[in-house]
Each structure stands twice: as structure tokens, then as C-alpha cells.
Amino acid sequence: MSAVSSGSGGPQVPSRPSFVPDVAPSRADAVVVGSGPNGLVAANLLADQGWEVVVLEAAEAPGGAVRTAEVTAPGFANDLFSAFYPLAAASPVIAGLGLDAHGLRWVHAPEVMANPTPGGPAVVLSRDLDRTARSLDGLGGGDGDAWRELYGRWAHIAAPATDALFTPFPPVLPGARLLGRLGPRGAIDLARTAVMPVRRMAEELFRGPGGGLLLAGSALHADLTPEAAGSAVYGWLLASLGQQVGFPVPEGGAGRLTDALVSRLRSRRGRVVTGARVERIVVEGGRAVAVGLDGGSVVGARRAVLADVGAPQLYLSLLDPADVPARVLDGIRRFQYDAGTVKVDWALSRPVPWTDPAVAHAGTVHLVDSIDQLSRYAYELATSQVPADPFVLFGQMTTTDPTRSPAGSESAWAYTHVPAHPRSDAGGEGIGPRWDAHATERIVERIEARVERAAPGFRSSIVARHVLVPPTMEAADANLVGGAINGGTAQIHQQLVFRPTTGLGRPETAVAGLFLASASAHPGGGVHGAPGANAARAAVWGDRRRRAGAAVRSGLGRGPRRGP
Q1: Gyration radius from the chain CA atoms
Q2: Spatial CA neighbour of 61 closest among 371, 476, 491, 415
Q3: Global confidence as pTM
Q4: How many CB atoms lie within 10 A of CB 550?
Q5: pLDDT digits (tens, 9 = 90+) for 425-482
Q6: What does the alpha-carbon distance between residue 474 and residue 482 come to, in Å, rounded to a whole number?
Q7: Angle 231-236-239 from CA coordinates, rounded to 5°
Q8: Backbone phi, then psi, for 209, in 5-degree steps?
Q9: Relative to the CA of 140, which of 108, 428, 442, 538 has its CA 20 to 30 Å away?
Q10: Would residue 13 be called left, alpha or beta, if left means φ above 0 and alpha means ψ between -120 and 50 degrees?
Q11: Residue 9: count of CB within 10 angstroms of its CB
């Protein structure tokens, strides 16, 4: 591997402030377990209500899966887990926090997303609708107009649909506004789209392969495969958000979003304590009243405990089974995580040498030849095989944000989904059943070979790499169980009222005063803050009801005695 100069005179990676943890109090109004974006959003909203809030984080730095570090080479800022944030850009929750006042600045690549095609031009999603349409027309005559019509359907309902997505289920008021916008016929059409596989949507709308690749590749940002019910609406949502708001990133690294959330919380006297591993949630009289830390100390919760952890960790590890109804425990034991993930970060000595120059301008690149290839990949995952020719989602971070690496270089990453516990290897190279050094080497070879096919010479530009496989990803962030980055499958059987399990489709849990604030709760994965916001609102409402009830009981108790 060649060396890379520091690029004097080029843009420099902004220094990130070193995090100094707060000291845990003995009691607070609310204790938030976990400092991922959902936990920090919840803490901020509670602090806005005047609550005394403490966030307890087991790791040495806050942020969960929203963190940045130099893990490849000096001067290269690498986002350790998540990187692009269309859902954050569209989220009314994030927008309402005013994080620009705390140093957050969103930046964009020249183009949103691209997918090279075999023997033809790449399909490119741009924030410029005309450019997107021209790209699709280049692969299928009339497909540009088909995209205009499909995106127009989204634009017509974007505001109420976004509100409905990011509020607790059922979304009564946003749902009413959405139905009013659609009318009866439009509502029926949307219901059909909501359960349609993305393959069928592509077949109905597009003549060429471009539209289907954009939609199906977007659906696989989660674990929604081309034949899965509901994959059409997710692919449509994510691609439409790319058209509408782009796939922005925080300038300087994903960790800048975490920094802004922490800064805002501290400005409201909230505390973030790192190196504080919660071992149990203390329940008395059917109510969560405290959390117990590794080492024996206890932090009391006067009003609520909010858990930004996976539902299985909450119910099966942090709570005493005696405090949870048996039917809830049975349901949680059936909770399904999404597939595992392999993520590779690279320091590159130069921009990626894509065969199609149009790809060089996209922040996000999908590397797959066809929907049929996506279906083969999905089948191999479903049968616990390591895919032979994986779908690769590739990020060009310096292209998007020039502060991420020295001038003339590129900070890049890629990920692909894999079984957390492989039964076999569809590539015939003996990967599994453990993600050992051999397995890691072989899957990285497949990922880099996939990039090399679309960008000959890519390997020669690699200065350094950093690799996370399912067990090391979970070791880096305990919420990413088996490398699952979505907090649980996005398949339709574990959404809405079924998330995290049947009958618990809201942030309230089976224990009074305890609220689920993680991606295991509705509406699920993605950096948008909705599970945290929903949990915070539920905690405030629950506390008001409890206090009102206590006041009524107290008043009755002090009333004048009647009768003899």
C-alpha cells in the first residue's frame, strides 16, 4: 500500500472536542440508559420540560452508532457505523432541536446516489429532478416521466406522511391529515403500495433497469428484499427523500451530530455519564424507580427510566423476569434482529477511479447489477449463507465533505449484510461458522473485488483499512447485536403494532415508568430520533397522569369526614 501525504494546503479534518464525562447524581427526574441518538433526543426533550436528566452510557464516548474516529490513517475521519442521514434531514424531531446553534452543519455530495450498470450508464439520483429523470431515461425511454409521477405522489403527501411516520402508533392526527390529502381512492392506492414488493413496483412503472435499481437498492438499506411485502414503500420513501432532501452528512463527521446533541443537553443542565454500565433496572411496586450500575451504585429515577437499548436486552437482561408478564417475555424471545453487517473503512490515496465518471459525484453508491442479483443475495442471507457476490453499499465521504481527509485523497467505506452466524458459504471459501481471521479476509476480498469491477485500480489506492464483522461490531456497540444495524428486522411482521412484539407497539412497556426509546420501538431503525422522542413524550404524559391521580387521591384523603 502506498503512503499518502498530509495534503498541506488542502482542507483539514476539524478537531473533535475531547469528551469529558459528567458525574452521575444519586437521583434524577429521568434516567436515560444509552447515549445513542434516540437516547440523546429523549434526554433533550425531557430537559426542555424542566426535568433533571442523566444519560448513562457504558462506552467511554457517547453516540452509540453515530461516532467518528481516525481508525484507518492519520487525517482520515471515518464514521464508525452510520454515515448518511436522509431520515435525520426529513425528521421534524431533529429539526425541532435547533442543533445548528450547537455546531451542526449539514453538507451534501454533488449527487445523492448512483448505481453503475453492466455495459451501460450508471443510474444517478440527484436533488435536481430533471437530472434524475434524464439519468433514468438513459436506461429506459419514458422512465424519467415515470419517476416524476412516482416522486410527485410522495411530494403530495410528504408532510403528513412524515409526521405519521415519526409519531407513536396509531398516528391519529397525522393519519387524518394524510387521508384528507389522499382521498378514498388515493388511500386505497397507498395501502396497496404499503404491502407491495419493490420488484413488482419496478415492473409496473419502469421499462429499463434504472428505476428498479434505485428503489430495490434503497429498500436493502434495511433488510427489505425485492420480494418482501412492504419493500416497495420503503424503497420509495428512501429514494424520494434522496430526491427531496438528499443524503446529507454532518460536516466533520457523524460524531458532530452527537456532539451537538450533547452540547444542547448540557446547555439545559442535563448530564451525560460515560463508562457507566447499567446492569439492572430496579422495580418496586410494579414501577421502575432506579437503575443499578456495574460496581454496585444506584441512580434513582423520580419520574421515569428510558431505555435506549434493544428490546431483548431490556426485557431479558436488565429486568427481573418476575417483573414482566410471561406473555411479554414469550413475545420478546421471538424478537428478530436484522441480518449482520460487515463494514470496511478505507483511507484512499486518491478518489475512486470509477469506469463511469458520473459515479464519482455521488455520496452513496450501490454496487449490484440487477434486481435478480439482489434476489439471489437475499436468498443466500435468508438461508444463512454468506453471499457469494454481495450487494455492496459504498460511501464516498470526502466527495461529500472535503474535511474528511487530506486534499486529493478519499475517506471511503462500504458495508454488506451477512449472516451473524453463517451455516455455509455460497462462495465456497469456507466462511463460517465463526467470523474469524479467515472469514474476515475472505469477505473483505469479495467486497473489494465488487468495487474493483466498477472501478479498476481501486485496490491500488488503498492506504489503510479498518474492518468490523458482526462480533466486533457488537463489541464496539452492544446495541448492534450480531452486527444488526437496524435495531430489529424491518419486515412487516415486526413493524407497527408488532414492534417490538404484539401489543407493545408504543414506547410504554410492561413496567410502569419504564419506556423503550431505541430502534427496537416503532418506527424502527435510522437516525431520526423518533423512538426517543416518542418515549420522552410518553414519559411526560405518564408522569402528568400519575401526578394528577396522586393529587386526586390526596384530595380525597384530606376531604371532610361525612356521616356519623
Answers
A1: 24
A2: 476
A3: 0.93
A4: 10
A5: 999 999 999 999 999 999 999 999 999 999 999 999 999 999 999 999 999 999 999 9
A6: 6
A7: 120
A8: -80, -15
A9: 108
A10: beta
A11: 8
